[in-house]
Amino acid sequence: MTQLIALVASLAGVASALPHHAVRRQVSELRDSYDFVIAGGGTAGLTVADRLTGAFPDKTVLVVEYGEIEYAPGTFDPPLTVWGGAGAAASRWAFSSLPNLEVDNKRGVVFAGQVVGGSSAVNGMFFDRPSRSDFEAWDQVNSPEYASSEDKWDWDGIFPYFQKSVTFTEPNAETVAEHGYTWDLSVYGGETPIYSSFPPFLWADHPVGRAAWSEMGIRTLTECAGGDKEGLCWIPISEHPETSRRSHSGLGHYAAVNETRTNYDLLVKHQVIRVVYPEDTTGSGPPLVEVRSRNDDRVFNVTANAEVILSAGTFHTPTILQRSGIGPASVLDEAEIPLVLDLPGVGSNFQDHCGPDLAWNYTEPLDLYPLPSDMSSDPDFAAEAAAQFDEIPARGPYTLAMSNSAIFVSLPNITADYEAIVSRIRDIVSNGTASSYLPPDHRDDPRMIAGYEHQLSVLADFFENPEAPSLESAFATGTSARAISLHALSRGTVRLNLTNPLEQPLLDYRSGSNPIDFDVHIAHLRYLRQMVTTPTMQQYGAVEVRPGADVQSDEDLLQHTKDSFTFSFMHPCCTAAMLPEEKGGVVGPDLRVHGLDGLRIADISVLPLLPSSHLSALAYAIGEKAADIIIREWSEDE
């Protein structure tokens, strides 16, 4: 029995009874001070804590986590019998956005982990990486200001941390022969107890989707985690290769090390309210960390001797900063919070993957077995599936997560009109109208305007690149697909709730506020609907039902896009972006907050642009690189 199996068995018990050496639940259990204080025990935060406590056994680290230690089931675990249904899950926040004017005043819904392990403990377990082109774009938006920085965030600067952050296990020969999995082991190579693997089971209609995409002319890639991602990909999932249980940072970066790290404390069920700089001393940190107990509302300060690292995620990192008086001056003035530092990028630049859907019916029998419907219609099959999941190694349907196949296609390979779309992007930059698509309080701020125009120019180049994915669509089973736009041009906000600043922030997606986004959505949808007309789909009499054969004009496709629009595919990012301060940035390449001493950010909020991937693997890599930067700097000081 592996260590992971034992850890899963223990975590399946009552969380409060677990014998965790590092866990703390009240202020009386804390030390007088800590060298490093990390706000947020999620994907990146626990990665940083693990690496710092390992590298500096004489330095103390405190992680303050809003949630509790919980067992985190996979997206399809027993006793569920409905694949893709809403089953038992670890604790999470559910956010509902403000009404979106450009999408018929609809509201977006997005989830985030409220548990030790963060969103890695509640996500869909899709474990892909961005493309090389994404990091070239990241490097471009930070040029020329950071060209000489020691800390590079281009592909070569981040790729080693993807390798370090995960242990990939090759499938056995029987599984490969059955499903045709391909991979390149050289792009992996880590020994971290964060696991990825291919499941031994796929639904019987999974090959239908892959065959349709192949018939559309999409090239099939051997491996998509090594930088080349334009094509049809096999995607590993974040599960242990023997147990098929979810692998997340609460296991790999906390439970796996906590018994041996006497310098590692984890304070659960506590909220970091703000960081506090004494008056006129923002240049001489680190700040105090103000913390609230969720049990009795007691508020107290924690002292950090070295630095404070915010790793509370896309929604809560900017909220902590805003409560600290660090953020857009107009927002803080309205909230009656004394201004410490005017950084308009805090809580701005909000982005997420979004898009419309496509659906079809089969008019000929889909004579394939097994399908998800067999879990509910065949009790014997469901019982056998549950028994297979408890075997070592696990087998059967419960070894699945959400999906294992996806296409990532560039705009030049989607539409001949890509040049017209790119020209429209460049036109609004050159004629000065781009600023009109920003949130109202940014339209007169030269920093936010300069940053947005620079991002649009970089994205125009990106959309012209035939190797840079613009569209994602995943398939596992069924009769629907999503046309997911990977690089939105619109920018939203995450702002304090003025009624109760300690509660969850207000999200404003502002999807479609830059109307060129709808041009991209329509191009994606026109392309993806070709699936239904492929020979493989037609073999089963596939008929498009949504948007439907009578929906052909751009006007009608626009309305379908709004009618079926998903605001979030659970990949929110970019609200404390790594950009120069004069372009609306919040952190530099060393992840230090502009203008503040002793304060860094290490989570997915530092992305300047959405990547061509889901965010879990990238969050781990950011945590690994952040830890390396911090370790290097403090090692040099000793």
Strand order of the largest sheet: 1-9-3-2-13-24
User: For the report, how would you describe the main beta sheet?
Assistant: 6 strands, parallel
Flag low-confidence runs. 1-19
According to CATH, what is the topology of the domain at 3-73 and 128-167 and 248-350 and 574-637?
Answer: FAD/NAD(P)-binding domain
Q: Which percent range describes the beta-strand content?
A: 15-25%
- Terminus-to-terminus distance: 41 Å
Number of helices: 17
Mean pLDDT: 94
Query: What is the CATH C level class of the domain at 3-73 and 128-167 and 248-350 and 574-637, in words?
Result: Alpha Beta
Name the quaternary structure: single chain
CATH architecture of the domain at 3-73 and 128-167 and 248-350 and 574-637: 3-Layer(bba) Sandwich
Layout of secondary structure:
Elements: H1 3-11, E1 23-24, E2 34-39, H2 43-55, E3 61-64, E4 92-96, E5 109-113, H3 132-141, H4 155-165, E6 167-169, H5 173-179, E7 195-197, H6 206-215, E8 231-234, H7 249-255, E9 264-267, E10 270-276, E11 288-293, E12 299-302, E13 304-310, H8 313-323, E14 326-327, H9 329-334, E15 341-342, E16 357-362, H10 373-377, H11 379-389, E17 405-410, H12 418-430, H13 446-464, E18 469-475, E19 480-482, E20 484-485, E21 493-495, E22 506-508, H14 516-528, H15 535-539, E23 542-546, H16 554-563, E24 599-601, H17 616-637
Parallel strand pairs: 1-9, 2-3, 2-13, 3-9, 6-7, 13-24, 14-15
Antiparallel strand pairs: 4-5, 8-17, 10-11, 11-12, 16-19, 16-23, 17-18, 18-20, 21-22
Helix pairs in contact: 2-7, 2-17, 3-13, 4-17, 12-13, 14-16
